[in-house]
Specification:
Elements lengths: L1 H16 L6 E3 L4 E5 L4 E3 L2 E3 L7 E7 L4 E5 L2 E2 L7 E4 L2 E4 L8 E8 L7 E11 L6 E3 L3 E3 L4 E6 L8 E6 L2 E2 L10 E4 L4 E4 L8 E8 L6 E2 L3 E6 L3 H27 L10 E6 L2 E6 H6 L27
Length: about 300
């Protein structure tokens, strides 16, 4: 009994001298990934030194830090669809609006270290949507042709595969291949299309989250260059230029342009035009100070009115 009584003061002294643990905050899963419209759990565990009733707050980081849980209730878009157990938060039916970085803060004023925090990142996964495909309906042999495929909504970003006539097009390994595929951007590019490239093309988007999605196929026809039509067009344009040039030369040679140097005005009348020269317009000006000279009359035929004798 005497030995026991001597040990008790020593145990009490050790307990009094041992340092107390300050408030600590941690998360068992700092990165959370869930499918869209599923539930998400944001874990937050804490331990305090003395304060048995610390203040718990959740904030979401963005352009500005906003309160999610404050003064014992949820705020903003989480109000009515979130619950808390201890400091761990459960979100129901998450969407892309809920994705982001959250911070759990524990405030214990009675502890020597009164504040602790931990971060949890929520990533909401979105399956592929039907991609938008840009496929030309026709092209000329030897030309460069690009086919585009894009899904802007899937998370993580989708990768793309191209199909011709319902058969997957493999990524060419030869350096002299006639086409190339960028599976990250969805680009299918032909360096110089040939008639053999005619077919029905479609694109498949996948990201490992949901079922892959394919755009509606579209037929692309590759045609040879119509040399005869091109030559005929060039000849027609050449003839038009020659005719216009020769016509202008002949008109200028005959003095057509020199006789029409005065200003002229055209008054549209139905399907024609009345031409009024500038000289004619000047005659209509004020003539109050100008003597009027009647135009000479043409001589009339002589008529015998009376007889006379010498």
């Amino acid at each position: 009994m005497e030995g026991t009584s001597l040990c008790l003061p020593v145990v009490i002294l050790l307990m009094q001298c041992s340092p107390s643990a300050p408030v600590t905050v941690s998360s068992s899963k700092p990165k959370v990934e869930v499918h869209e419209y599923a539930d998400a759990v944001l874990s937050c565990e804490f331990r305090t030194e003395k304060d048995q009733n610390p203040r718990i707050e959740w904030k979401k980081k963005g352009k500005d830090v906003s309160f999610v849980y404050y003064e014992g209730r949820f705020r903003g878009p989480l109000e009515g669809r979130a619950s808390i157990d201890g400091a761990t938060v459960k979100l129901r039916k998450v969407t892309q609006e809920d994705a982001g970085e959250y911070r759990c803060e524990i405030s214990a004023p009675l502890d020597s270290v009164s504040l602790g925090e931990t971060n949890v990142t929520l990533k909401v996964l979105v399956p592929p949507q039907i991609p938008s495909c840009d496929i030309p309906s026709s092209a000329v042999t030897g030309s460069v042709v690009q086919l585009h495929c894009r899904d802007r909504h899937s998370i993580p970003p989708a990768t793309y595969s191209w199909f011709k006539d319902n058969k997957k097009m493999n990524q060419p390994r030869q350096t002299n291949a006639t086409y190339k595929i960028d599976s990250n951007t969805g680009l299918l590019e032909f360096k110089a299309v040939a008639k053999e490239d005619t077919g029905r093309y479609s694109c498949l988007a996948s990201n490992g989250v949901g079922l892959p999605q394919m755009c509606k196929g579209k037929h692309m026809t590759i045609e040879d260059v119509n040399v005869a039509a091109v030559v005929a067009g060039v000849v027609v344009v050449f003839l038009i230029v020659v005719i216009c040039g020769c016509g202008g030369f002949l008109l200028n040679r005959n003095g057509f342009f020199s006789r029409h140097r005065g200003r002229s005005f055209w008054i549209s009348q139905c399907h024609g035009a009345a031409h009024i020269s500038s000289q004619t317009l000047h005659r209509t000006e004020d003539t109050s100070n100008v003597n009027y000279v009647p135009p000479p009359q043409e001589p009339q035929d002589f008529k015998h009115t009376q007889s006379f004798m010498l």
